[in-house]
Write a structure and sequence with these properties.
heterodimer, A: about 600 residues, alpha/beta, four-stranded antiparallel sheet, about 10% strand, elongated, B: about 625 residues, six-stranded mixed sheet
């Protein structure tokens, strides 16, 4: 195949740059802070590690003694004692390693558990404006994938790295104490080793970064096409898409992976060569020294064995460094998420809201988003009495949604106050507010679980009778009974097995079960068939009865039956009154009514 | 069937599963052979080293011959260089082969996923499919490029070492190799257990991910009902399960890992005891013992990695199982072997006593649908949600197969024709207009990537989309979707209409969903649709009386049956369900000002937020 240069889209190359962040010791320090609760265990593990490494490093030394004092000196007892000591060391190593691995891995898992819990709890407090910037996919990548990378690192790599470092230090000590000159001879190749490692890291970092960016490109193309597979099939695009995938996206990843492999395959042979040079030097000079009777044969043999063990951890360490780097990139993203400010927060002296009558007041409320000075709402004043139904009406982007969002305190106003029964919402706890507030969304979200569980979401611990009563009240009972397992029928991901109308009715039942004092209803615009529509209208009337309600209304029947209609334009209230009053005024409402009414 | 997360927990894949991947190795036989050759040579070279050491000790040191030392040092260096060169070749070859296999696997998966039927996708979670293409393939690739090579190398080395030891001194070899027997038994046993445990780990991680995904998707509901503590508790339970499943793996692993190195050390100790006696009796040289021991120690490093290799193999075989499961799934709907390629259709559609029952469902979706539609007719389907309208139209492009009866297009059963030739002549505008993150132009040309720019513009004009497209700074080159401009619902719909128009389909299927836009946009869309329907056989799932009134044939559906059919006036006169729906709609089909445009303007700042806006 002709080699063509594949140019990935901008976001792929941008993410390549994103990875271009060196290792940040601050990130490492903070992540390490998560081990603090387990310091005792960690110290035990370190002690065990010391003994295990010492026992491991002692091995060749025992072989040396066996050769020199036992075999060469023809001393049977010396041989026997040496062997016994060797055996003891092996058993010590065995026991220590077993407990060390157990303890350290346990700590790694515990840290991961803690970190995920912290992330999830933090996510439960972040405001909706956070979620509007941060897609579901990104949250999952942080909490699942990035934390998994960290886990891999914490449990396996940390084990290996600490073992390597301990072993290396001890080997150096033993070598130095056995014979200073041979030891220095061995270390003479180290500067080259360091140089090779530095060079390798410089190139490999870039290469691995490209591989990661490429895989994320593959990921996003796959995600989109699997999501849109029905459209793909409807337009018979399979062959075309396949070629595009195989020849561009997937091939780009392949080429980057091979680039990285080419680099990586150079590194280990370099270590091999340096190891061979060190061994040859030791044999030559050391051998001459033995012949000059300066050292024993046993020392030389032990040295050759140690050289092998000396280069293993070095090779291993430099390989791990790469993992360390990508782990730190993930760690940094995790910490950034944990550091995201909670912009809507309970005040330190927040009180629980008492049982509400349902009076709502907007007092000179203005609002704009933090990243955009354009006002969304300007000087809203509105006084709603308990039990009143208010229909919010207005054109696209007028600010109706923002009004109800402020009322449920998904955002805080930038000026003015929102009051419930005279309590400023910022002075009360969010949970006590929302427990008395029911919100029915335009696109009713159902959780993966049974129909019953979804209704129960409104009030945990409600009895089966309550659930059925709520379903009956909104007219959902009938279709639920026709489902395969009735109330126990599981609703699949996003409720796909139910129709839009049915999902709406379930969300009504959920809200009814919660029995809120204030109800916010975002009327669905999606079309349902006429009969379902009838049922929904009846359910709505039932739901609104006896509560203060704010309705973002789309249906004329809902609007006309409201106690008050509030017309919003450009973030201001321009008119309010009953249907009849407003029609008489011949203002904005009249215009909307006229254009909307014509078919 | 909830996705595919709960299969096989009792029955994790055996390592044998990996052999089923051998078809993917075939194209790279030469590379693999070269790789194995390199491995053999590297192993061979490394086996020479202890011989050299023996010579150094016996001839060089103990007999005091300096020339042996110089020669040995030179040989050791040469061996090092040779090993390095071979290692380089071998590492590159194995990484290259693994990357190619990963590439091929991903392609195969993607190809299969694209052709799997609607039924399959209805029951499978998107995330699951993606994680197979990415994570499972990665596990297989890592195994092929790393653990597998190490295993092969270990086998070569073990065979070489054992042979040399037996040649040097059979009795001593037998004694010192004794500890290998429990090691092999332990490792085999570990392999089986750890695979099962890894399986459980995968499943719980999947659950954790699902829990999180749901929480984030439903964040508004969670907030609205102040259910955060409940959610935290649920997450915590799953998180703890995951913790436990990981700990189980670790406790297995921590038993095996130190024990393997203990057993190797026992080998060395046995050599020293029994070999030492032989030396003292003068039956063996000191160098011989040293070499013997050096051979034994050569096994020590790779043997310590056994637990790792088994881990890798376990992970890879779990991945292979899932990957192969997809690749082996035959799409239930495909063109038959001797499929007829449909000529340009006139547009006649017939349903002959069609019934349909979806997989896994108790109730029947369609019962005895009998229908003949002439070319260029406009058919309106009305009825309650779930009455079977969508099921009916989905049968025409053969998204599902009928359970009984037959669907015919121009007199030919859709099951006998080439799927591509059928679907290319059917245009579909779905209720949710899904666009891809690509340019607007490419989205319009989705069904015909070879369309000229003029054709694309003509289609956009006919769909009333041209003007708003030109309103973007980059016009038709504007990227839409996740990483580009967010289009409003009405705009998306018009692009989808243009997309269908460009196909110039003979048969058109519309899910009449224009109610979610404001009056002005609705008018534009209606005009676009009128344009689209001209001169084609059209099936409309209708909610609006204006569309229904004009239809050549109205089908009123209830519980999967056609209960009434005819023209508007006839049906009105007949009374019944149609009359009922009609009257209800007259009373309330006066949608006021639609608010959804607000949704869209907010969507640009708040994509996750849209359900509340």
């Amino acid at each position: 195949m002709a080699k063509t240069i594949i140019v990935p889209p901008a976001y792929v190359t941008q993410s390549e740059e994103l990875y271009d962040k060196g290792y940040d010791p601050k990130v490492a320090r903070r992540l390490f802070g998560y081990t603090r609760p387990y310091m005792n265990r960690l110290s035990v593990a370190m002690v065990l590690m010391f003994f295990a490494s010492a026992a491991a490093v002692a091995g060749p030394y025992f072989v040396k003694i066996a050769i020199d004092s036992g075999l060469t000196a023809q001393n049977y007892d010396a041989l026997r004692y040496t062997v016994l000591a060797y055996l003891a060391a092996a058993v010590i190593q065995w026991v220590c390693t077993y407990y060390r691995v157990n303890i350290m891995s346990w700590i790694g898992q515990a840290v991961i558990y803690d970190l995920r819990t912290a992330l999830f709890q933090h996510l439960q407090q972040l405001s909706l404006s956070f979620y509007s910037r941060y897609s579901v996919g990104r949250v999952i990548t942080r909490v699942i994938n990035d934390v998994e990378t960290l886990r891999d690192f914490l449990t396996w790599a940390v084990l290996a790295i600490t073992r390597d470092i301990f072993t290396l230090i001890m080997i150096i000590i033993v070598m130095l104490s056995m014979d200073l000159r041979l030891a220095l001879l061995t270390f003479s190749v180290l500067p080259f080793m360091v140089l090779a490692t530095l060079l390798f890291r410089k190139f490999s970092r870039l290469a691995y970064r490209k591989v990661r960016a490429a895989i994320s490109w593959v990921n996003s193309v796959l995600a989109e096409n699997v999501n849109g597979v029905r459209v793909v099939q409807a337009f018979s695009r399979q062959a075309y898409n396949y070629n595009k995938f195989a020849d561009y996206v997937n091939r780009y990843h392949l080429e980057r992976a091979v680039d990285a492999a080419r680099l990586a395959s150079f590194f280990s042979p370099v270590v091999d060569v340096l190891g061979a040079i060190a061994t040859a030097l030791v044999v030559w000079f050391g051998g001459t020294a033995v012949l000059g009777e300066k050292i024993t044969a046993g020392v030389l043999v032990a040295f050759v064995l140690y050289i092998d063990r000396f280069f293993d951890p070095i090779r291993d360490l430099s390989r791990r460094f790469d993992a360390l780097q990508s782990t730190m990139a993930g760690g940094e993203r995790i910490l950034a998420l944990l550091d995201t400010d909670i912009d809507v927060q309970d005040a330190s002296n927040a009180r629980d809201l008492p049982v509400l009558k349902g009076e709502v007041k907007f007092d000179h409320v203005s609002f704009h988003y933090s990243d955009d000075p354009q006002p969304v709402l300007t000087d809203i004043n509105l006084h709603v009495h308990p039990g009143e139904t208010v229909a919010l009406v207005g054109e696209t982007g007028a600010g109706k949604t923002t009004i109800v969002k402020l009322l449920s305190r998904f955002h805080d106003p930038t000026a003015g106050r929102v009051l419930a029964d005279g309590h400023d919402l910022r002075d009360v706890t969010q949970s006590s507010l929302r427990r008395q507030m029911g919100i029915v969304l335009q696109d009713p979200f159902l959780f993966n679980g049974s129909v019953k569980e979804n209704i129960l979401f409104g009030r945990l611990g409600a009895s089966d009778e309550d659930v059925v009563a709520a379903a009956q009240a909104v007219g959902a009972h009938g279709f639920i009974l026709r489902l395969k397992n009735r109330y126990e029928t599981s609703v699949e991901e996003g409720g796909v097995l139910l129709s839009v109308g049915q999902r709406q009715l379930i969300s009504f039942a959920r809200a009814l079960l919660a029995d809120p004092r204030i109800l916010i209803l975002d009327e669905a615009t999606s079309s349902v068939d006429t009969q379902t529509e009838q049922i929904i209208q009846k359910a709505l009337a039932r739901l609104l009865k006896g509560r203060t309600a704010f309705v973002i209304a789309h249906r004329l029947s809902t609007i006309t039956s409201a106690d008050r209609i509030v017309v919003i334009e450009g973030g201001r209230i321009v008119e309010q009154g009953t249907h009849a009053e407003l029609l008489e005024k011949r203002g904005m409402y009249y215009e909307l009514y006229r254009t909307g009414f014509q078919e | 069937m909830k996705g595919t997360t709960n299969y096989g927990i009792l029955n994790p894949p055996p390592m044998k599963t990996l052999f089923r991947l051998r078809g993917f190795l075939k194209p790279y036989v030469w590379q693999i052979a070269a790789n194995i050759l390199c491995l053999l040579l590297v192993t061979g070279l490394s086996l020479i080293v202890p011989q050299i050491i023996e010579q150094i000790v016996d001839d060089g040191l103990l007999k005091g011959q300096v020339q042996y030392l110089v020669r040995s040092a030179a040989i050791l260096l040469a061996l090092g260089l040779g090993t390095a060169a071979l290692n380089l070749a071998q590492r590159y070859l194995s990484a290259w082969t693994a990357a190619r296999i990963g590439y091929d696997l991903r392609n195969a998966l993607y190809d299969r996923i694209q052709y799997l039927t609607f039924t399959y996708h209805d029951h499978t979670q998107t995330g699951q499919l993606i994680s197979r293409c990415i994570e499972d393939v990665r596990a297989i690739q890592d195994f092929m490029g790393d653990s597998l090579i190490q295993m092969v190398q270990l086998v070569f080395l073990a065979v070489g070492v054992i042979t040399l030891l037996v040649l040097a001194n059979p009795t001593l070899a037998l004694i010192s190799l004794l500890p290998l027997i429990p090691m092999i038994m332990m490792t085999t046993d570990f392999g089986g257990r750890v695979t099962r445990l890894f399986y459980a780990v995968d499943l719980t991680l999947g659950d954790l991910s699902a829990r999180l995904q749901e929480n984030v998707s439903g964040v508004q509901v969670v907030r609205a009902f102040a259910r955060e503590p409940y959610e935290i508790d649920r997450f915590d339970k799953t998180n703890r399960k995951y913790f436990d499943s990981r700990i189980k793996v670790i406790s297995e692993w921590s038993k095996v890992m130190p024990t393997t190195s203990l057993l190797i050390t026992l080998g060395t100790i046995l050599i020293l005891i029994f070999g030492g006696q032989l030396v003292l009796q003068g039956k063996m040289t000191v160098g011989g013992i040293v070499a013997f021991n050096a051979y034994m120690l050569m096994l020590s490093a790779p043997v310590q990695q056994i637990a790792w290799m088994v881990n890798g193999a376990g992970e890879a075989s779990a991945g292979a199982q899932r990957v192969l499961e997809i690749i082996a799934t035959e799409p239930e709907i495909q063109s038959p072997p001797n499929a007829v390629t449909l000529p340009p259709l006139s547009g006649r559609v017939e349903f002959k006593h069609v019934s349909l029952r979806y997989l896994d469902e108790k109730s029947v979706a369609l019962t005895d649908i009998d229908l003949a539609v002439q070319p260029n007719q406009l058919i309106a389907l009305i009825g309650q949600t779930g009455s079977g309208k969508t099921s009916l139209v989905n049968l025409i492009p053969r998204f599902y197969d009928v359970t009984e009866g037959a669907v015919l297009v121009d007199g030919v059963d859709v099951r006998e024709v080439d799927l591509g030739s059928l679907r290319k002549q059917i245009g579909i505008v779905l209720q949710t207009s899904l666009l891809f993150s690509d340019t607007i132009g490419a989205n319009i040309a989705y069904g015909r990537p070879d369309a000229t720019e003029d054709e694309v513009i003509a289609a956009a004009k006919a769909a009333q989309a041209h003007e708003f497209i030109l309103g973007f700074p980059n016009g038709y080159e504007t990227i839409v979707g996740e990483r580009g401009v967010t289009l409003s619902g009405g705009q998306r719909q018009r692009v989808a209409i243009a997309r269908a128009l460009l196909m110039n389909p003979r048969i058109l299927i519309l899910d009449d969903s224009t109610s979610s836009v404001d009056t002005q946009t609705e008018k534009l869309i209606q005009e676009a649709l009128d344009h689209l329907m001209e001169g084609r056989t059209t099936f409309v799932i209708a909610h609006r009386l204006s569309t229904v009134r004009r239809a050549d044939l109205i089908l009123v559906m209830e519980n999967g049956r056609i209960v009434q059919r005819g023209k508007h006036a006839e049906l009105l006169a007949q009374g019944g369900l149609y009359r009922e729906i009609h009257d209800l709609q007259l009373n309330q089909d006066h949608a006021f000002v639609s608010e959804s445009e607000e949704v869209e303007s907010l969507e640009t700042r708040a994509s996750a937020d849209h359900s509340f806006s």
